[in-house]
Amino acid sequence: MDIALAALFDVLQIENILASMAGVFFGLFIGATPGLTISLGMVLLLPLTFALSPVTAFCLLLGLYSSGFTGGSISAILLNIPGTPSAAATAIDGHAMAKNGRAGEAIGTAVTASFFGGMFSLVCLVLIAPTIAKFALRFGAPELCALVLLGLTLICSFGQKSIIKGLISGVIGLIFMTVGLDPMVGTPRFTFGQVQLQAGISFLPALIGLFAIPQVVNGIIAGVRVIPTYHGKVAGVLPKLSNLVKLAKSMLLGACIGTGVGAIPGAGGPIAVFLSYDYISRVSKNKGEFGKGTPEGVAAPESANNGVAGGAMIPMLTLGIPGDPITAILLGALMIQGLTPGPLLFENNGQFVYSVFWAFLVANVLTLILTFATIKLWVRIHQVPSRILLPIITILCIVGSYSLRNTFFDTGVMLFFGVIGYLMNKFRFPIVPLLLAIILGPALEEHLRMSLIISQGSYAIFFTHPISLTFLVIALFSFTLPLVGPLIRKKSAEEDQDIIKKTV
Length: 504
Known about the structure:
The protein is an all-alpha fold. It has one domain. The chain contains 22 helices and 2 strands. α4 packs antiparallel against α14 (325-336) and α7 (141-152) runs parallel beside α22 (466-503). It is globular and about 70 Å long.
């Protein structure tokens, strides 16, 4: 207890509070700006930590880490352009709410749910970190392959009105995923002699192109107002207590999924947010409202989004295994400060570990306060004329795609996927399945082939491992339900009609 109090007083030093505030502001900017990522923000801030104390450095980085996820939802809601990959699920209902004149409510719901998810994951991080880390350590290649496959089954759920179009979109994404060097033998695949393609299709330019370029094309060339107009004063930003009670189920489900998936090394945030969105849409009483602008569709993925943040820190601190690319950068920051993550970190540097916990708490609280304090500024983006805002977005998209590897080839990839995104929107093909396939495809191939190497080509390895078998059963259920569900409802409706006719 004395160590925890000493760590709290250390975090509450003025320089550490200012560092956390600076990280939160920068994270909101990074997250809310299309084309910029939290990982990029971390890399930009990392050199600044060389001259800082370990606690101050982590106050700065955790401020960015916490607010970056929340900031990503702002552009997803206002512009339908996710600021981070994990905000793609938030855009589905969040942008629909914005188009209905409820942008303030959508952002307020997202911020509140993000805070809940972050605090829930922090409690798990503090109380049950060793247990969750030990369980996550049991996930080998078969378990990870089954988990990724479970994530890919959500393609059917996001097929919108046509499951066939959803599956086609997912297959196209898997085809793009095969471009690059074979992960096992290193031979080029579908590179067409282009050295740049040997590294594969970079996800960031594809994400920017799929979501941003169609908006720009529709707004500038087609003359369509793609940025929703918010009329009147900003109202309903702070959710009422009654609304929070209604959203409690969605936020709790998202926080549990986000923390659990985040604690699994390599799983990543996109799996968590789409899983949470899918399952809340199944268990909700308002199933027909999803996709049309329901707060539940914002609360669940946003809670999972920030739940991943705390969950990913569990294996990083206790095992020295980064849960995602961002915690990998945090792992590097630890080592720069001369600290070795792992079980001995708790024994040899207990006060610093508690400082990390308190810094994460302060970052979440500051994110909540500062986002609400500046929310009118974000909503005013709606009042900026498209002829001004869309060119700015285009420039940011070009800079964001170029800055990934300092090459215009990635800018070309971004424009290529922009054309694909525009055509898919025009012919009403869902983009989310393609996005899911690009995100999860490489991990699926890697873990599948690694599992087969371990089992010497036998697929029985997936059924002899209880965890992977459980995921496969859930995946089968998730895949078949959207296919069988309409048939069951149709048959039930026909039976009801027969009963009515007989009664009459």
